[in-house]
């Protein structure tokens, strides 16, 4: 066969020859075979077909893996060449080249580039039309691999594929005789729907076509000619297709019937193949605020807590039953087709039957759930959930079956688990694509309610959490439940436990409270029964989400106590993720509706209560001086640990968190402690960060207990901020923000000397370095927030050099280019300007004012909002200073600066709402009165002529009489203007005429009194002003004669409208000799 280069193949590969010298042997094999293939030309001879077959077989049989050194464009070029060598009338070769396309793209994880995609799509579509039906399965697999992540590049082929008579629509139809072909066609559609960020989405008409096709598949029963595994794969592909449409962000489920139909099939397939359970679902789920089973009367709490919760078994008498769960292995089942999955969920492999022996259910007050309706085993004693002997194998007779039968059962269970996982993942995408208020209409369809005594409980997400044999499926169910609970605080806030449970109907508030109780019960049961660390982590995270949103102040006591007591042993779990999530849950408990009396009591429990002594990487708690084994720095003699008032011993949770942060771990961490740096003596970073967050929550919500640890917290902060890890530094700084020093004087006073010692330690430690660390602006901002948390009593007691340090650093950081730092600095200055020891300091107040005014002009909305808040505080300080008998502050503070503050407040009041609210406060509350006093003072006494000019001009800015304040203030302004009009004729006259145009009847007597004393002077200046117009001095552009005349006419008209005797006198004095002049100008 002649060796010629086939037209259309890739250009010469010479540019990549150099780097390929170091590529592994497998890459060389691919290039060698590719070169042989590219050397061939189309030939219909038998020998040519045989050679092509052999080359295809060799390419398929190569053991490709990641890092084989094969370039994606080389794979695409090879596939184009392979298709050019295979005419469509050669069915066997078409089948083989389709296998090659599918195999190479999947094994090498290649997404075909646009340069070659067009040719390959046209070839495969033509092959389906022209080749025998037995080849369609392989061709469709090739097509699915080609369109994967390429949907946006297939636009011109969409009518042929997804149109009314499109290829994929026909092959995926229920009438399709070959179930494998139907499944492969649905797989192609699912891959077409997969969106890629940054690329166009599938057009809306085709989205709707695909969605309806997928929904129809999910609603249709399994056909008699389709085996169970193929049916599972079909369902998986349909679920992945819907998931891809929803994840794209463009498809919104706005129709109730459409959403209800989807939720119905998702709920159905969440339980697909679950042993001992077979549910029938309506075609559509409709939203309702009440349970779908009306007329049910809730039972008493003690009855509900001991009632059975099983979908298929009715059990009226109380019994203590140990959970029985099929534990499946975590091995991945590799699908024979090797297809590319749009959102693959790994299934489970070999079945491994175990029988559980866990905590006694009596400790929970609940009855555990058997996997099926076969009854329950006897009662077992209490054992640790981490004990290796906590699970026992069932007898061999229960798992004896032939190898072939066992293999098929394992494979079947794996595929069924994948369907359940696919339905749950699709449900998760659905939750994210609809509004929460719409989702909560379906609450009762997915969230358990307390069952009636002797009645089966409806199936819910908790059924999967408690009964599914696959750890991955249980984890998926918990993720969905967490997504539903996230942000549910407002919805759950209506829940309320009532004493009257016997009613003709169940109030919505009682139903929600019942659901909350049942969620607690089921999640705690799942907690003690779970053996998978990954799933255990999800259970605890789900509990944390529930605790964060449930209204415990409206519920009966003991719910949090049960959670608290059950989670404490898991703080010492061998898996670091479980330990971290356990701390997260404890943090949620201490932050919800804090302070709660129930939690207060829990914090006062003995430190050993509930803490098991299982192997752990967490440091054990020691006597009161436990944590000074590894002091972070020079320790203080006064830092001995004492018990909080009213407690029998120190708060165990605070001691635990401090020990996690500062003490080396006593035991070697397990292999799962990946978060710990190599060679680190401390707990993994996530554990220490979570402990710091819990400490901050405790200090904010339960300060009465945390106050005994003020100095210990100070040393923890110093240690954290002195470490190299920026995240530890940041959380150490944030702990200070929530530290007792912020609110100690409000409710639980501490000795002042102790608070001063705390801040002295801070300011002598790493805090100044953090404030100057420009490489970590987030840390700088947190350090500024920390400085703002010091109270005035403590600040005034600090040494002078420490006070100066705080002020100097904050004023300097106000020039930062980073918006976070600048916002934090503006707020801190707004706090400091209220300190009694600083507010009389003219220089500090002036510097702060200038800094705030500069921040009010920043481009960042957050910076401007913080600055506006500080401007309001600055105004409060100025009010206090103006009202003091000592006039020194008023005399020294710049009137021009006050004018700037007024102008800035007026401008800020036009800003966004976050800025406007505080700017209006600054303007309305005080700045007007302060500014007028300052402006009149400047007009009368300032030596700077330009400043006096601007102040006089500013006095004529307000357009309404009420903006000038009281009659007395109005009179003071008149007096100042008249008394000093000789040096500022133009500006004074303009201001006087403006004031006359706004005067009220009550103002006229004081104006008359002033003019009677200075009338001749005022009259002469007004006459001169009208003759010459504005004199054009350096105040700006002069008024034209027409504008001047208009001012006078407005004043005359207004004064004429006031029916008062004094009005005539004022007009006579001001305008008697100027009337003819004004008339001539008119």
From TrEMBL:
Keyword Phosphoprotein appears in the UniProt entry: yes
Compositional bias ranges of the Polar residues kind: 300-312, 345-366, 637-646
Listed Basic residues bias regions: 313-325
Domain DUF4042 per the UniProt entry, residue ranges: 418-599
Pfam families tied to this protein: DUF4042
Low complexity bias: start-end ranges: 383-399
Residue segments, region Disordered: 1-22, 292-406, 613-646
Domain of life assignment: Eukaryota
N-terminal signal peptide: none
InterPro entries in the record: ARM-like, ARM-type_fold, DUF4042, HEAT6
Keywords associated with the record: Phosphoprotein, Repeat
Annotated PANTHER family: HEAT REPEAT-CONTAINING PROTEIN 6, MALARIA ANTIGEN-RELATED
Name used for this protein in its record: HEAT repeat-containing protein 6
């Amino acid at each position: 066969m002649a060796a010629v280069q086939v037209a259309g193949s890739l250009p010469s590969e010479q540019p990549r020859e150099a780097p390929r010298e170091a590529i592994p042997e497998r890459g060389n094999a691919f290039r060698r075979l590719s070169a042989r293939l590219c050397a061939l030309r189309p030939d219909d001879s038998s020998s040519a077909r045989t050679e092509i077959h052999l080359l295809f077989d060799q390419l398929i049989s190569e053991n490709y893996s990641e890092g084989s050194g094969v370039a994606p464009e080389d794979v695409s070029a090879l596939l184009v060449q392979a298709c050019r060598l295979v005419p469509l009338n050669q069915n066997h070769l078409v089948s083989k080249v389709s296998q090659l396309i599918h195999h190479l793209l999947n094994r090498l994880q290649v997404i075909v580039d646009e340069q070659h995609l067009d040719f390959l799509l046209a070839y495969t579509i033509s092959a389906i039309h022209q080749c025998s039906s037995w080849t369609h399965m392989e061709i469709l697999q090739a097509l699915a691999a080609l369109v994967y992540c390429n949907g946006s590049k297939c636009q011109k082929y969409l009518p042929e594929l997804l149109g009314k008579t499109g290829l994929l629509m026909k092959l995926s139809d229920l009438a399709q005789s070959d179930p494998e072909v139907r499944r492969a066609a649905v797989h192609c559609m699912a891959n077409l729907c997969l969106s890629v960020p940054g690329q166009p989405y599938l057009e809306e008409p085709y989205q709707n076509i695909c969605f309806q096709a997928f929904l129809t598949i999910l609603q249709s029963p399994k056909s008699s000619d389709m085996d169970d595994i193929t049916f599972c794969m079909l369902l998986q592909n349909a679920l992945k297709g819907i998931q891809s449409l929803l994840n794209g962000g463009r498809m919104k489920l706005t129709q109730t019937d459409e959403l209800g139909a989807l939720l119905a099939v998702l709920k159905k397939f969440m339980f697909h193949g679950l042993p001992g359970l077979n549910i029938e679902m309506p075609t559509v789920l409709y939203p309702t605020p009440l349970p779908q089973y009306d007329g049910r009367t809730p039972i008493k709490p003690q009855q509900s807590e001991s009632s059975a919760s099983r979908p298929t078994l009715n059990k009226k008498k109380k019994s203590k039953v140990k959970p029985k769960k099929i534990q499946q292995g975590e091995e991945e089942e590799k699908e024979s087709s090797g297809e590319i999955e749009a959102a693959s969920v790994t299934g489970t492999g070999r079945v491994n039957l175990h029988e559980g022996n866990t905590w006694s259910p009596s400790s929970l007050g609940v009855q555990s759930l058997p996997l099926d309706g076969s009854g329950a085993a006897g009662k077992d004693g209490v054992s640790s959930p981490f004990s290796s002997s906590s699970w026992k194998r069932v007898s061999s007779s229960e798992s004896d079956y032939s190898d072939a039968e066992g293999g098929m059962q394992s494979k079947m269970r794996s595929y069924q688990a994948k369907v359940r996982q696919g339905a749950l993942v699709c449900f998760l995408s659905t939750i994210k694509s609809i509004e929460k208020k719409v989702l909560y209409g379906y609450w009762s369809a997915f969230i358990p309610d307390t069952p009636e005594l002797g009645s089966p409980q409806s199936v819910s997400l908790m059924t999967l959490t408690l009964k599914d044999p696959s750890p991955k499926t249980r984890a998926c169910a918990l993720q969905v439940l967490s997504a539903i609970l996230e942000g549910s605080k407002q919805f759950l806030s209506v829940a309320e436990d009532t004493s009257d449970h016997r009613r003709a109907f169940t109030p919505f508030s009682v139903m929600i409270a019942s659901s909350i109780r049942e969620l607690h019960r089921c999640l705690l049961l799942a907690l003690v029964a779970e053996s998978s660390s990954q799933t255990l982590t999800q259970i605890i995270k789900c509990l944390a989400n529930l605790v964060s949103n449930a209204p415990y102040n409206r519920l009966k006591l003991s719910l949090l106590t049960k959670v608290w007591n059950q989670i404490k042993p898991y703080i010492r779990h061998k898996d670091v993720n479980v330990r971290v999530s356990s701390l997260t849950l404890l943090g949620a408990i201490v932050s919800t509706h804090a302070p709660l009396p129930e939690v207060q009591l829990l914090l006062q429990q003995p430190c050993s209560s509930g803490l098991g002594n299982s192997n752990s990487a967490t440091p054990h708690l020691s006597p009161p001086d436990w944590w000074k084994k590894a002091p972070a720095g020079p320790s203080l003699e006064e830092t001995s640990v004492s018990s909080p008032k009213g407690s029998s011993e120190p708060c165990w949770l605070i001691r635990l968190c401090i020990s996690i942060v500062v003490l080396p771990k006593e035991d070697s961490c397990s292999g799962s402690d990946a978060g710990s740096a190599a060679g680190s003596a401390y707990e993994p970073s996530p554990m220490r960060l979570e402990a710091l967050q819990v400490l901050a929550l405790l200090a904010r919500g339960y300060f009465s207990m945390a106050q005994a640890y003020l100095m210990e917290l100070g040393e923890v902060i110093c240690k954290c901020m002195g470490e190299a890890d920026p995240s530890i530094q940041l959380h150490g700084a944030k702990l200070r923000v929530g530290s007792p020093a912020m609110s100690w004087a409000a409710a639980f006073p501490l000795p002042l000397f102790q608070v001063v010692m705390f801040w002295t330690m801070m300011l002598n430690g790493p805090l100044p370095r953090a404030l100057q660390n420009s490489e970590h602006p987030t840390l700088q901002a947190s350090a500024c927030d920390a400085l703002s948390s010091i109270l005035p009593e403590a600040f005034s007691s600090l040494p002078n050099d420490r006070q100066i340090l705080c002020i100097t650093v904050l004023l300097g950081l106000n020039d930062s280019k980073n918006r976070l730092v600048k916002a934090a600095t503006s707020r801190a200055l707004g706090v400091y300007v209220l300190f009694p020891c600083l507010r009389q300091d003219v220089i500090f107040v002036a510097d702060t004012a200038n800094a705030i005014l500069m921040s009010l002009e920043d481009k960042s909305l957050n910076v401007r909002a913080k600055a506006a808040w500080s401007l309001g505080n600055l105004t409060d300080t100025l009010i206090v200073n103006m009202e003091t008998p000592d006039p020194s502050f008023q005399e020294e503070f710049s009137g021009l600066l006050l004018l700037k503050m007024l102008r800035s407040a007026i401008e800020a009041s036009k800003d966004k709402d976050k800025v406007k609210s505080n700017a209006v406060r600054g303007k309305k509350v005080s700045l007007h009165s302060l500014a007028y006093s300052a402006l009149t003072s400047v007009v009368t006494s300032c030596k700077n002529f330009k400043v006096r000019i601007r102040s006089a001009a500013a006095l004529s800015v307000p357009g309404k009489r009420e903006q000038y304040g009281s009659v007395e203030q109005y009179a003071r302004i008149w007096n100042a203007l008249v008394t000093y009009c000789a040096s500022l004729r133009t500006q004074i006259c303009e201001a006087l005429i403006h004031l006359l145009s706004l005067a009220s009847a009550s103002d006229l007597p004081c104006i008359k009194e002033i003019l009677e004393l200075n009338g001749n002077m005022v009259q002469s200046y007004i006459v001169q002003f009208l003759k010459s117009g504005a004199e054009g001095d350096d105040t700006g552009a002069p008024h034209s004669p027409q504008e001047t005349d208009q001012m006078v006419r407005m004043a005359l008209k207004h004064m004429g409208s006031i029916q008062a005797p004094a009005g005539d006198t004022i007009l006579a004095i001001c305008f008697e000799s100027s009337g003819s002049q004004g008339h001539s100008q008119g």
